[in-house]
Amino acid sequence: MAPSAQSEAPAALGVPIEVSSVSEWNTILRFAYTNNQTVIVDFHAEWCQPCKAIAPVYTNLASQQPFTYFLRVDVDGNRTRPIAAKYSISAMPTFIVIKRPPGEDGSANETGKGVVVDRLQGADFQGLTRITNTHASHAYTPPSNLKTREAEKAKDLGNDLFKKRQYAPAVDAYSKAIELSPDSGMLYANRALAYYKWIQSKRDGADTPEARNALRVKQMEDGVKVTNLEERWGKGWVRLAEAMLEAGSEESQESVAVDLRSEGRKVTLDAAEEALTNAVNLTEGKTKAEAQSLLDTVQKAIADLPSK
Question: Are residue 108 and residue 158 in the same domain, yes or no?
Answer without folding.
Answer: no
